[in-house]
User: What shape does this take?
Amino acid sequence: MTALSMTNSPKISIKGLAKSFGRKVVLDGVDIEVAAGESLVIIGGSGSGKSVLLKCLLGLLKPESGSIEIDGEAMTGADKTTRERLRHKMGMLFQGGALFDSLNIWENVAFALNEGSGRRRTTRAATRKIAIEKLAQVGLGPEIANLFPAQLSGGMQKRVALARAIAPAPEILLFDEPTTGLDPIMADTINNLIVASVQQLGATAVSITHDMASARKIATRIAMLYEGTIIWEGPADRIDDSGNSYLDQFVHGRSDGPIKLQVRAL
Ligand SMILES: Nc1ncnc2c1ncn2[C@@H]1O[C@H](COP(=O)(O)OP(=O)(O)O)[C@@H](O)[C@H]1O
Ligand SMILES: [Mg+2]
Assistant: This one.
């Protein structure tokens, strides 16, 4: 590959991605590219396949067809070593935070640091110090370092999860519903922290959400997932005059429009 094509290749390229569970088709040919340094937010209704898409990207789910490339390198179909190496370029904030109940706060943050470090050995005290620095970046003080997740509020747990995601300084950050379950003020704080963290790392970000306030705050570009494909994508400031009736209905939260709630009798 020439230097020119390297610089031109998108950070993430997803082509024709398909994923089903049994007979249920969730992703039906998703095409999307993310440029380096961009913050893409994928919006879509509950159950539209947003989490499944992120899990495919992270290599946690195996798509039936289609391709995922990171920095021009194929992740789908690659050997385990390549997949692991590409996966270590990514940090993820899981829906619900997904902290380990049995580890204290600094150990939770340090978890991702140790995971990718190979043979590097640092003392427990040194690792704790780094974890505390990462906590400070999301506005948390050292006094919580030895507490356990259950002892923190939902908003603080979310901050810890964010600190864990950014700790290894990943090139790509993935956020799954970062504001779900938070009050509007805490949600805004988390959105601001996400924007600041992504900028500070110079990372490429992909977030998924159904929270439009969050999407507007975080995104440079927005894509909408509906019935297994991306039905609209464009700059974040174009969502109010997109001329797309599906996007329009979602953005304005109207029950009336082309998107019908699928209500099934039991
Ligand atoms: N591991 C799984 N096994 C079976 N079905 C799944 C699995 N993961 C997700 N699904 C189904 O895929 C659809 C999309 O789920 P998801 O991506 O979690 O939606 P959301 O857009 O709300 O994040 C849902 O119908 C869900 O039930
Ligand atoms: Mg989800």
Residues 1-89+171-254 form a domain with the Rossmann fold fold (CATH 3.40.50.300). The pocket of magnesium ion (ligand 2) is lined by residues 50-51, 95, 176-177 (CB under 6 Å). Residues 184-201 form the longest helix (18 residues). The mean pLDDT is 89.
